[in-house]
């Protein structure tokens, strides 16, 4: 066996395993819809995608995230890096319950890959107990440096339904 193959093969196996693990740990988004923003002759068009994420610990709350998705050949093959800009709107879509137990005051609830290795879109839930609200913040980060671009939304919770916190 070629010495380069002997070195590269374990690296590629661990890289593949890490990518598979990251894909299984990220939240499952349901695509609500999309709109094309730029025509690409080869490959899919650039677009804005709207996805819905149900909060895994708060039944009755769904977050809608819109973000740019790069098209073209690199986008079709999964090698493109999507922009670090996103917008979020979370809403009560049914009766709210906290079946998952007490919530931490701050917790990452969703994470989605924006590039093949190092860039992620993150959604963090914060509990505002004084105002009885759940605050959701979206931002992106890189392995070394993130982006200050962010978006925030809040879901008021009826004071008759206390928010259990850790």
Task: List the SSEs and their pairings.
Layout: H1 3-25, E1 30-38, E2 46-54, E3 59-69, H2 72-77, E4 86-97, E5 106-113, E6 120-128, E7 133-141, E8 150-156
Antiparallel strand pairs: 1-2, 2-3, 3-4, 5-6, 6-7, 7-8
Detailed description of the structure:
With 166 residues, this protein is α+β, with helices and mostly antiparallel strands. The chain has one domain (28-156). Helices cover 17% and strands 45% of the residues. Strands 1-2-3-4 form a four-stranded antiparallel beta sheet, with no helix packed on it. A four-stranded antiparallel beta sheet has the order 5-6-7-8. The radius of gyration is 19 Å and the shape is elongated. The model is unreliable at 8-26 (pLDDT under 50).
Which terms would index this structure?
alpha+beta; 166 residues; elongated; four-stranded antiparallel β-sheet
Please work out how many helical segments DSSP would assign: 2
Lateral arrangement of strands in the main beta sheet = 1-2-3-4
Strand/helix succession? HEEEHEEEEE
Q: Which structural class fits the helix and strand makeup?
A: alpha+beta
The level of helicity is: 10-25%
Kindly state the number of beta strands: 8
Distance between the termini: 55 Å
Low-pLDDT stretches are 8-26
Query: Roughly how many Å is the radius of gyration?
Result: 19 Å
Return the domain count.
1
Mean of residue pLDDT? 77
Sheet with most strands: 4 strands, antiparallel
Sheet-strand content, in percent, reads 35-45%
Q: What is the general shape?
A: elongated
């Amino acid at each position: 066996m070629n010495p380069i193959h002997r070195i590269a093969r374990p690296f590629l196996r661990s890289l593949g395993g890490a990518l598979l693990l990251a894909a299984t740990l990220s939240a499952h988004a349901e695509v609500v819809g999309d709109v094309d923003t730029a025509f690409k002759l080869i490959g899919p068009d650039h677009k804005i995608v709207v996805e819905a994420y149900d909060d895994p610990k708060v039944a009755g709350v769904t977050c809608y995230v819109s973000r740019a998705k790069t098209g073209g050949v690199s986008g079709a093959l999964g090698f493109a890096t999507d922009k670090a800009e996103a917008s979020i709107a979370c809403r009560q879509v049914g009766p709210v319950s906290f079946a998952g137990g007490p919530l931490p005051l701050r917790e990452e609830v969703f994470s989605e890959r924006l590039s093949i290795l190092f860039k992620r879109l993150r959604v963090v839930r914060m509990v505002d107990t004084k105002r009885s609200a759940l605050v959701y913040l979206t931002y992106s980060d890189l392995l070394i440096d993130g982006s200050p671009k962010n978006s925030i939304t809040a879901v008021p919770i009826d004071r008759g339904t206390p928010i259990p916190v850790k």
